[in-house]
Specification:
Length: 317
Amino acid sequence: MGGSRQLSLQSHTITPKELSHALGKNVPTKISTAPRVIPLCAAWFLPNDPEGRTGRKVFEEKRIPSARFFDLDAVKDHESPYPHMLPSAEDFAKAMQDIGIRKDDEVVVYDTQELGIFSAPRVAWTLKVFGHPSVHILNNFRLWVQKGYPTDSGPVEAVVEEPSHYPTPSLDRSKVVDFSEMRDIARDHNKEGSEGIQVLDARSKGRWAGTDPEPRPGLSSGHMPGSISLPVSELLDPDTGAFLPGKELRRLFASKGVDPERPIISSCGTGVTAAVIDAALGKAGYGMPEARRLYDGSWTEWAQRVSEADGLIRKGA
């Protein structure tokens, strides 16, 4: 049973063809309790999207058949002042129950046709840090549609026949960086004896350099001491919005001066596209998987808790 469903999904990042094959081999029935392959839509748009699009809306308009919807704006720490901090383990388990995913399901997270790779890596990373055993990212839904694979539509409520049982997991804190540790890393930058941790920033070059404003009103742009600008757009094919091939990603990381032998922390605006960097590192086989982490609060937390005056916000190249 377990062997057959693993046939096509060996990699963390999979193609539309591989997902189609896996779904064809794994047609669920109402009475079956066997592990399933579940597409999970992570569609999300910025709050100020000029076309007023929302993840829920595009999911209802076009989705992979049998897909479930993960709402990034709902499954988060609602007590935090920052937009997308990880939820509690209890809230994560409740969200998985509500969308009918079981712990032994093989989950394939995917993005919107409109944006390409964007928020799916954050949802996949969330599942992984809460210990879901089998998580993949589709590369990507735009190609799924272009290649003529089937799609479905309809209300989000129609896709879950009944809630699942999902046990409350434990958070793998070794994959997450909090503010106090991030501040210590920034203060230690270039000091003798420091660990040489690399911080990769997925925001645009202008926001990183402090020449363009942040989308959040009143928030300073700029970057952490020693961080490397790695705009998420450079990781993706400009036409398909899919990840570049591994060889091209490795060449890009090397050109940015990223040392695969040193620890890496990914950051961005709110913790969403930082996960795109993390997934691209994985796809490229670049760096040590056990030494890759993500700064959950990212720039939105950072720029509200430090200042230029204390030397922790830098401007310029």
